[in-house]
Structures are given as structure tokens and as C-alpha cells.
């Protein structure tokens, strides 16, 4: 009445599959390098060369190759770039903490502090200019 199933079920365990598997540490390395690469792009756009060099050094350590650096200019304001850099540094900090990478965690925390301070300074200057 029914035709028998001739192919493997989609519920068959993938233990003997022939695709490459990565460890959790490798996945976290890839994710962390991606967050740092995005942070590097924003940092270079802001013109922060020494900070960019430190970030590039960590990317090179994770990827075993130096990152390509190209400061593509966007029309974003410096404040918007600072907010973006702060968010990216926060993401990198979370992954670095999960990975127990102290060097990147310190770098990301310092970047978050620097961008938050720059944003608060810009806000204070704007408030002083706008005051009667």
C-alpha cells in the first residue's frame, strides 16, 4: 500500500556526514575576528590610527593574517560613528569574555570607554553651544 522510504531520513544523526565541523572555540574566533574587523573599519574611518593598529594586531592574531585596511568614507557623522564603534566594541567584549580572551576583552573595554567619553564630551559641547 505504501512505498518504502529509500533515502535516509532528515532526522538521521549527522555523525558520519562529510562536511567540515568547527569547534566552539573556532566559531568564537571567527565571530570575534568579524566584530573586530567591523570595529577596525569604523576606527579607521574616525582616523584613530594607533587604536586601529592595536585592533589590527588582535585580528592578525585570531586569523593568523593581517586584516585588509581600507578606510571607506561614509556620510555618517562622527557621533554616529562613535555610537557604532561603541556597539561593536561591546559585541567584541561579550565574545572575548565568552572565549576568555583577556587581551581582546581589555582592548574592547578601553574602546567602549573611549567612545563613550567622546560621545559625552560632544554632547556637553553641544549643550554649551545651545545654552543662552
Question: What can you see in these coordinates?
Answer:
The protein has helices spanning 24-46, 49-63, 78-99, 102-130. By secondary structure, it is mainly alpha-helical. α1 (24-46) packs antiparallel against α2 and α3 (78-99) runs antiparallel to α4 (102-130). The model has no long low-confidence stretch (mean pLDDT 87). The longest helix is centred in the C-terminal third of the chain and has 29 residues, at 102-130.
Largest sheet, if any? Answer: none
Strand content: under 5%
End-to-end Cα distance, whole Å, is 88 Å
Helix content: 55-70%
Q: What structural category do the secondary elements indicate?
A: mainly alpha
Number of helical regions: 4
Mean pLDDT: 87
Number of strands: 0
Oligomer: single chain
Order of helices and strands: HHHH
Radius of gyration: 22 Å
User: Uncertain segments of ≥5 residues (pLDDT<50)?
Assistant: none
Overall body shape: elongated
